[in-house]
Each structure stands twice: as structure tokens, then as C-alpha cells.
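Next up, sample data:
>
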Amino acid sequence: MFAVLKTGGKQYKVQPGDLLRVEKLAADAGETIQFNDILMLGGDAPVVGAPFVDGAAVQAEVVDQIKGEKVIHFVKRRRKHSSKRTKGHRQKLTLVKITEILASGADKSGVKAASGQGAAPAAGKAAPAAKAAPAAGDKLTDLNGVGPAAAKKLEEAGLTTFAQIAALSEADIAGIEGIKVKPEWVEQAKELAKG
């Protein structure tokens, strides 16, 4: 049995026991990972996905994090007073050994899904709760001297309404990290909170 999987923008035809070099994955050596983007399963009864085969997966063990061969990019311009430039690059790769091809039941396997460097949260983990939007009428940029960047920093500090800013004491202002709250903002917030 073989499978055609997709990872790192490329497609690979694999069988159990194959050693494969793929684009860098967020996994350490010795971990078991699972590729869920299976385009085709081959064997006695081939299955072609549209675009992926539902419930199919390929499990692999990470052998090592490696670098590819050095690639030289050389540019030379002809004629007098010409210039030359040489650049080199070694692509970061992950060496994996294919251990198993699952035709179905991939969702229940409990194995970590293979993901690239900028990994999204895993399916089992809940996404972080969205921050509460400021109440209507509490547009922090209405304060003189508060621009979009300062308003964002105030919201990150938990100050989303004029009433919260108006209630700040000098000790509270000193305890806020990341932004210096000006006393004028507190006075303006008191007036705007009244109406």
C-alpha cells in the first residue's frame, strides 16, 4: 500500500519504511507526527481524494532536523566596471521515517498533526478568547494625544472605557507597564465619562 501526501507545498509518494526529507516541521527528533493531507491511497483498491481522502493519514517518526545542500546564487554583469554578487542558502529540512498508513480513523489516533514553522494551534486546543471590544461611545482615540497605537496599548493593559481611565489613581498609573498614561488623559476621561 502507498499514499500520496501533501506537505510544505509539495507532494510525496510514500510507503511504510520510507525515509523522507520534507520542509521543516515543528517537531523534535523522536516524536511521532501525522500528515492529514492525503491526496491518494494506492494498493488493491485505489482511492483518490477530492482534494483529500477523508479520514486517511500517514504517521511518521521524526528522525532529525537537518539542512539541505548549499545552493549558490552568483550574478555577474559583463563589461567594464561591472559587479559580481554571490549568495548562498541552505534550506532547513526535517528527516522523517514513514511508520504507518491509515486508510481511516485518523481523527481518533491522538497523534500530533504535522505542521510547519508558523504552526497554528492544534485542533484539540481551544483558541484564545477574543478580547472584548470597547463599549459604544468609548473610542479611546477621542482623548487628546491618544492615537491608534496608544489606544491599542491601553486596551492590552485592560483599559477599554473612559470610566476605567477616569478611576485611575497615581499609584495605578505607575503600575501600568508598556505605556505612560498622562494625567491629562485621566481628566479628559472624567469629562467624557460624564457625557
Observations:
- The chain has four helices and nine strands.
- The two ends are 72 Å apart (CA to CA).
- The longest strand covers residues 57-76.
- Helices lie at 148-156, 162-166, 170-175, 183-194.
